[in-house]
Amino acid sequence: MNNRRTFLKILTAAAVAADPRSTFGAQQTTPAPAPPAPSPRNPATLKKSTLISMLPRDRPYAERFAMAKEAGFEAIEIGTISAEAEAAEIKEASTASGLKIHSVMNSDHWRFPLSSADPEVVRKCVAGMETSIRNAALWGAETVLLVPAVVDANTSYRDAWTRSQRIIREQLLPVARDRKVIIAVEEVWNKFLLSPLEFARYVDDFESPWLKAYFDVGNVVLYGFPQDWIRTLGSRIVRVHLKDFVFDRREGTVAWKNIGEGEIDWPEVRRALAESGYSGYVTTEIQGGDLAYLKDVSARVDRFIAGEKPLIAKPSTATGK
Fold first, then answer.
1. Checking phi first, is residue 308 left (phi over 0); if not, alpha (psi -120 to 50) or beta?
2. Is the whole-model pTM more than 0.90?
3. Domains present along the chain, CATH in parentheses
4. 286 has pLDDT over 60
5. Nearest-CA neighbor of 278 among 220, 213, 223, 225?
6. How many angstroms separate the most distant Cα atoms in the chain?
């Protein structure tokens, strides 16, 4: 009996010594992972962009581009343009102003969602995306924004997932790859991609460098925290939209706000972007206005990029378009 006890003690001691977990105690099963190495990209190089819809619609493109540049923006995001002459005018405005078109916002994914069971609806969406990708190639934009699916009374979550992925994989990614344009899927109020974990999985399923995430900071505030989404999505993010948001829980009302006038913790969002190594374009997607208003918005983005609170004075009011 004594020999057996001695043998078991020796065996147990040897097993404990051989187990690296014993150094840290029995409750720790694996060593804590080392923090990620610093990103080779400089997170301070976020680039300021605005949407074409924030500029006066009644002015020629050349004037709108010039106004955006004077306000302090470095780039612009444009919607889908079908007319070749108008697309050419936009390209000329970009060249003359030196203001880069970095992204195209696809126009037909709401009216004609990829997740529809109607082949004709899907065909129209694919055609709209093909036009958007051609626009991007013409203008030198690297991305096209796509709302990938819409869940509604006739389309289940599962169907929205499988249908949209199949069409993107079979019909859109080959075109994007040929044109060297990234399809950037965005989370919006479409009852789809309702958590950062799902969003990450949706992107990962494609296993393609031509399918990434377009993250909208304001769109997730109703049911999450943008800094959490950013840290979860990480390097999947290829573009970012900026807008603020207020949810009045007592009154049950919501409202989009200018940057710094809502509930978003902008310094924490900036830290999350820096941690993820993001160094791309951040595009303002709020109400438009005159040059003074646009300069104020641009200054708010400057403060956000610097890690400060965007608003340091009383809220400005947009005037004219």
1. beta
2. no
3. 42-305 (3.20.20.150)
4. yes
5. 213
6. 97
